[in-house]
Each structure stands twice: as C-alpha cells, then as structure tokens.
Amino acid sequence: MPSRQRLFPERAAALTAAAMKGDQEEADRHDTAFAGLWNLFKANGSLRVMYAAANMLGLTDAQPPKPLLGANEGLRTQLASVLPI
Q1: Residue 32: band (very low, low, confident or very high) from pLDDT cuts 50, 70, 90
Q2: Would residue 1 count as lying in a domain?
C-alpha cells in the first residue's frame, strides 16, 4: 500500500495540540497561519483546495473526483500566496 503524505503535518499538529491543551493564545497563533487557507476553503471548497495544494507541493498529480472541477489558474495563484509552509 502506498504511503500517504499529509499536508502541513507539523502546523496542523501544533494547532491541534494547542487547542487540546486549552492554550487559546497558541491555538489562535497557529490558526492565523491557516487563515488564508480557511478563506479559500469557504470560497472554493476544501476538497478542491487541498487537491490543488497537494499538486502544487508535488505530492500528487491526482485531481478531485468528478463532478468537482480542479483548481483554475486564479485559485492556484491565490493558494500559492497562502500556503502555510
């Protein structure tokens, strides 16, 4: 079975750990790093955005399942400016 890559594992784990500890200040700090991504999720759908992110980071060339469309150039440009890496 192929290994599964995860997007932004360290940042996501840090956000989760801070939230689970109840450290609101630290959780907010990590959440801020994802703010642009959250906004793209709301505007374009999280699945489409995460496929595009994985493509841009060279983790896969897979596309979202039909009937979802892949990311257009405008979304890819926006995504490149907010990737939390």
Answers
A1: very high
A2: no
